[in-house]
Design goal:
The chain has helices at about 1-5, 10-30, 40-45, 50-60, 60-65, 65-70, 75, 85-95, 140-160, 170-185, 185-200, 235-240, 245-260, 295-310, 315-320, 330-345, 355-370, 380-395, 400-415, 420-435, 440-455, 460-485, and strands at about 105-110, 115-125, 130-135, 205, 210, 220-225, 230, 265, 275, 280-285, 290. By secondary structure, it is an alpha+beta fold. It starts with a helix and ends with a helix.
């Protein structure tokens, strides 16, 4: 059996079977780190994928309670570190030279999470202080074990519970696997950090560390060091005279701005990945999990949020049907009434009195009643929204998310769904037509010749007429595009 367990490249089915058979016995023999609280110890003993789940729960004291959330917050960046010998060995293997050749100082770990740990170092050439992120040894195999167990559980649930198939548990795990695989290559994280920095360089009150590409690789990432107070330490934030109400609102607005404006957002925004700089800027770290949503999905998401903000539940329901989120055979008016039952209790109520557990429970009932399936492309967006709201409310318990979100969503609506957006969309369409216009006759002719060969000689009179029409259309499109887009 140990041979099978170590066969990282074995077929997934074989790995799942082997690991499922021995996993309960391995778990029975694990006690975890006795220095950790019991829930944290259990999740850390189970594996890195379970730690990710605990990190999400740590941002929601309204769901798990203040004491549990505080205990789970250890999972964000205070897990047991791996040895300095392993850290130095990884850096030397990745960068090809001894640590001392790059760094004049290299500290003990300053933060440790499920995937990696961070060391503070000083560059030998410039004296600049940097943060060096290093993947945990064997983290790829550890994650694969967890994923195999998740796939087994998802397949088991789908087989024995047909009603659960609308939730697509197997697809959800597959999506999670893809996200995790990207997180295990720090070159991809460096690229994400670079793109994120380019998108947000003009965002007021927001800062990112810069990447040192020469000292980064697949298992090591070096970035500039940024001093700040952890966003999860309210006492330190108050001591530094930062306004937690402002910070809570800013976290939520930054997330919405990045998701709607850019379609590229930080998808792991728990307190362990956020700091407050001395000047009050929010500093984000850890870009292993980034979310991407296309323009159409952004517009749908914005319209849904805008509808809730305006309490226009009929429009919210219609958007769900137009986007295909609700099966077409359902009643749009009944769905609107169900959404009203979700939204109305929230408006005008102090945030501390809202039971998020009851709200999520009712939302789940609604999705089941109307046969809504899980949309894997929205999983990261929905998950991050839950986490960000939890972070914002941990800073400002009375925060009303709808009031905070309104200016960001309204601005996006004006820019992307109003008259200006129609002109922009038309210009984009004309650009495409102008680019392909000269090729349209040839493309159409090839397609129609293929059709003639398949259908017989009776259709031979069609190509000439269609070629002429397509040529005229292409020429008109190209002319219009040149006219509209000329400087």
């Amino acid at each position: 059996m140990p041979v099978i367990l170590d066969a990282f490249d074995a077929p997934r089915g074989l790995r799942i079977l082997a690991r499922t058979l021995v996993w309960p016995f391995q778990w029975l023999g694990k006690k975890g780190d006795p220095a950790l609280p019991a829930p944290t110890r259990a999740l850390s003993a189970l594996g890195p994928a379970y730690i990710k789940f605990g990190q999400v729960l740590s941002t929601r004291p309204d769901l798990v309670g203040d004491e549990m959330a505080t205990q789970l917050r250890v999972l964000q960046d205070k897990l047991p570190a791996f040895s300095m010998d392993d850290a130095r060995r990884t850096v030397e293997d990745e960068l090809g030279q001894p640590v001392a050749s790059f760094f004049s100082a290299f500290s003990e770990p300053v933060a440790a999470a499920s995937i990696a740990q961070v060391h503070k170092a000083t560059l030998r050439e410039t004296g600049e202080q940097v943060a060096v992120k290093i993947l945990r040894p064997g983290i790829e195999r550890a994650f694969q074990r967890d994923i195999d167990a998740f796939f087994f559980a998802a397949n088991f649930i789908e087989f024995f519970s047909p009603a659960s198939r609308r939730l697509k548990p197997t697809d959800v795990i597959g999506h999670f696997q893809g996200v995790v695989q990207g997180e295990l290559d720090l070159r991809l994280e460096s690229a994400s950090a670079s793109e994120f920095a380019a998108n947000t360089q003009n965002d007021e009150g927001f800062a990112l560390p810069s990447i040192n590409w020469e000292l980064s690789g697949r298992r090591v990432m070096t970035m500039s060091w940024a001093e700040g107070v952890p966003l999860g330490d309210n006492a330190a934030i108050d001591a530094a005279s930062h306004d937690r109400n402002v910070l809570g609102a800013r976290v939520l607005q930054l997330f919405l701005s990045h998701a709607l404006r850019d379609g590229f957002f930080h998808a792991d925004m728990h307190q362990g990945n956020l700091k407050v700089a001395p000047n009050g800027d929010i500093i984000a770290f850890d870009f292993g999990i980034m979310g991407h949503i296309d323009e159409y999905t952004r517009r749908v998401y914005a319209e849904i949020l805008f509808g809730f903000i305006k309490r226009d539940y009929q429009r919210v329901a219609e958007v769900h049907f137009e986007a295909g989120y609700v099966p077409a055979d359902q009643d749009v008016d009944a769905f609107a009434r169900a959404l009203r039952a979700v939204g109305e209790p929230i408006f005008g109520m102090d945030a501390t009195r809202i039971s998020m557990g009851k709200l999520l429970s009712y939302l789940f009932e609604v999705t089941e009643r109307f046969g809504m399936e899980t949309r894997t492309e929205l999983i990261l967006l929905q998950r991050t929204m839950v986490v960000v709201e939890g972070v914002a409310r941990s800073l400002s318990p009375q925060l009303n998310i709808w009031d905070v979100a309104q200016p960001i969503v309204e601005d996006y609506i004006k820019q992307s769904i109003g008259p200006k957006a129609l002109v922009t969309d038309a210009a984009k369409t004309l650009r495409v037509l102008a680019r392909f216009g000269p090729r349209l006759p040839g493309l159409v002719e090839k397609a129609l010749i293929r059709q003639v060969l398949e259908e017989g000689p009776m259709e031979k009179s069609k190509p000439l007429f269609t070629i002429i029409i397509s040529g005229v259309v292409g020429a008109l499109a190209a002319t219009a595009a040149i006219f509209l887009l000329a400087p």
